[in-house]
Amino acid sequence: MLSVRCHSRLAETDATQWNALLPDDNPFLDHAFLSGLEEHGCLDAAHGWTPHHLGLYDDGKLVAAAPAYLKTNSHGEFVFDWSWAHTYARHGLDYYPKLLCAVPYSPVAGPRLLGAPALRGIVIDAIQGECTRLGLSSAHLNFCAEADAGAFADRAEWLPRFDWQFHWMNKPAESGGWRDFDDFLVSLKPKKRRNIRQERAHVARAGVHCEIRHGNELDDAQWRRIHLFYSATFDDKGNYPALTLEFFRHLGRTMPDRVLAVLAWHGIELIAAALLLRSRDTLYGRYWGCSEPVPGLHFEACYYQGIEYCLRHGLRHFEPGAQGEHKLARGFLPTRTRSFHYVAHPRFRAAIADALAREEIALTACRAELLEHSPYLGAT
C-alpha cells in the first residue's frame, strides 16, 4: 500500500534509501548535500526556506521522493517569478507561500522526481495535492532533468518553462575529443583563442599560480579562507551569503572526492578560490571569491582550470553556473534548462501561460543570435 509523507527535515528519511532513488551521482541530490544544508544552518524560515520533502512509501520503504520546500520569497531559486508574485499582490492575493521542488541556491539541472519512472506521476499528484491541502498558490519544479520532463507530457495544468545556461562539452572520443587545453584552443576562432591565451598570460605574469585540491585535501585554514572569499563576493553584490563555513566543511568530510577547490596563490598567500562539485561525467562550478584583483584571474579559476580538469579526468560536461554571456567567448554554449509550474488559480494560470509563450519566442531568438557569435571554427 503506497502512502505519502511530508518531512520537515531530510534527516527523517533514510539516507541509503534516498540515495538509492537517484538515477545518477549528481552530487546536489545526494542526501549528504541536501541534509547538510539543513543541519548546518543554511536554510531557515526567516530567509524563506522551510523543508517540506515528499516521500512515497511502500510498506515503510521509501520508493519515490521529491526534495521540496515551502517558500515565502523567491530568493535563491534562479528561475525568476517575481513578476508573478507582484501580479498576485496587485490583485490582493497571496502568492507566498508556494511549494518549490529544487536544490536550494543551486541552479543545476538534475532529477527532481526521484524513484522509478512509473512512480513519477504519483509524485506529481502528491505535489499538486499538497498545494490543495495547504491552500498554496503554486508549485514549481526548477531545473528538471530531461527524464522528469516526460512525466508532464499530458498534464496541461503544469506550465513548461525554459531558459539558457552556458555549458562546455567535450566531443565524444570517437569524434576526436579534445586531448588537452591546447587541443581545445585549436578548435576556436583565432581571435577567441588569442584572447584566452592573453588572459591566462596576465595571470601568469602577475605571479599567480593555481592548483586543484579535493575536499579531503583542504585543511581548516583553507576552508576558512574559501568561505571568506565566498562571503565577500555575496556581500559585495548586496546578497546574503547563506552557506555556512560548517556546511563547506561538511561537504569536504562527506563528499571528499566530489568536492574540489581551485586555489590561486600569489607566492605563499592564498588570494582567490573557486569551489566546484563533480559527478562521474560533469563538473559544476559554484562559488568564487578573491582578495586581490588580478586581471583574468576570475576566468582562470572559474573556467580554464575547470576545462583542464575535465580534460585530464575524462569528464564530458562543465556547467560553470547561471547566466553570463561572457562565457560564450570562452567555449561555453547556450544549453536548455527546464522547469514546470503548477498555478492553482485558473485565470492566473492562463495569463502566465500566455506570458511564457511570448518568453519562449524571445528566448529562442536569443539563442539563435548568440550562436551567430559562437567561438568555434566552422560555426555560423
Describe the structure.
The protein has helices spanning 15-20, 31-39, 82-90, 120-134, 146-149, 181-186, 190-205, 220-236, 245-254, 297-313, 346-371; strands at residues 2-7, 49-51, 53-58, 61-66, 68-71, 98-101, 114-115, 138-144, 158-169, 208-214, 259-266, 269-278, 282-290, 317-319, 333-343. By secondary structure, the protein is α+β, with helices and mostly antiparallel strands. Helix 2 (31-39) packs antiparallel against helix 9 and helix 7 (190-205) packs across helix 10 (297-313). The longest helix is centred in the last third of the chain and has 26 residues, at 346-371. The chain is globular and about 60 Å long.
CATH class of the largest domain: Alpha Beta
CATH names the topology of the largest domain as Aminopeptidase
Gross geometry: globular
Mean pLDDT: 96
Strand numbers in spatial order across the main sheet:
2-5-6-8-15-9-14-13-12-11-10
The run of helices and strands is: EHHEEEEHEEHEHEHHEHHEEEHEEH
Q: How many beta strands in the DSSP annotation?
A: 15
- End-to-end gap: 56 Å
Helix content: 25-40%
For CATH, the homologous superfamily of the largest domain is named as Gcn5-related N-acetyltransferase (GNAT)
Instruction: Characterize the largest beta sheet: strand count, sense, and whether it forms a barrel.
Output: 11 strands, mixed
* Radius of gyration, in angstroms, nearest whole number: 21 Å
For the record, the count of structural domains works out to 2
